[in-house]
Amino acid sequence: MLFKKESEVNHFDAMWMLNSHEGKAHPRCENLLHSGNDFLFKEQIENALREPLAVLGGTDAARYAGIELSDNPDFGDYFSTVALRLGRTSTSDPRQIAEVLTHALSPLPQVAKAEASGEGFVNIFVRPAAAAQALFALGNWLNHFPGTEVGTTASALLRNGHVLDHKRSFVLKTLELLNAYLEEFDSSSAPCPEPSRLALLTEPEEFRVALQLHEFPSQLRTGVTCGYLYRLSILIHDGLFENGLLPEYWLCDWEEPQRILPRLYLLKLCLRVLALGTTSYAKPETNPKRR
What we know:
There is one protein chain. This protein has 2 domains: about 5-30 and about 145-285, no CATH class; about 40-125, Gyrase A, domain 2, CATH 3.30.1360.70. It has 12 helices and 6 strands. It has helices spanning about 10-20, 40-60, 80-90, 95-105, 130-140, 155-160, 165-185, 195-200, 205-215, 215-220, 225-240, 260-280, and strands at about 70, 80, 110-115, 120-125, 225, 280-285. It is globular and about 60 Å long. Residues about 1-25, about 150-160 and about 280-285 have low confidence and may be disordered.
């Protein structure tokens, strides 16, 4: 059974659920985060942008170092529009700013290639092996949060004042869907694959889900948004499932059986992130600008 019974939710978790509307980070989170952690994959890329941005536009510019998950793999796995933003408030050419930022990103072990495109976009292609190492580290990090393997219940969320609007309901349905498959495959006995095996998660849909998971530690630090969990749930539904069902080959791939365990691990991480996230709603959804 991957979901806790309502009576098994401990006092600490119940108090956190009651207080989550205050917009604070998860109390267990900050002591477990520091810049050297492998699972802070996306954050480490963003940190590499802060220094050149501070030089180009001051400390205010460094605040806009965030990168976004790309909808088109031709434009990288992540992209940034910060050069365009900085170009609007300075005399510098956005394309030249983008070129400076790509040079700052190129030495990173997480980055396979960074390129400037268009009027000032920064496109970032990540190394699958580095992303796999970060995914492995994320799973180990989640072990510090007791109960993440089993999640939460809709009744507990309702009892603690969460209004189950369309997006929250969709997140909970995704949890139920993942739970059903992981129970069917008896995932509790499955070993954790090594990072080299996780590097086999190279299908575009699998890779996008993995990259979205990499954002979760930073979300937990600043306050998990419903929008983040909703976007992750959409990626799971649209990328991993077809009409609510996993493709037949996905966990029974006789041609490439070495991919089965990494895929199962990916599903378990999705469930654990959604489970912990649903007890940590802290901020309303935001609407970041996308290309």
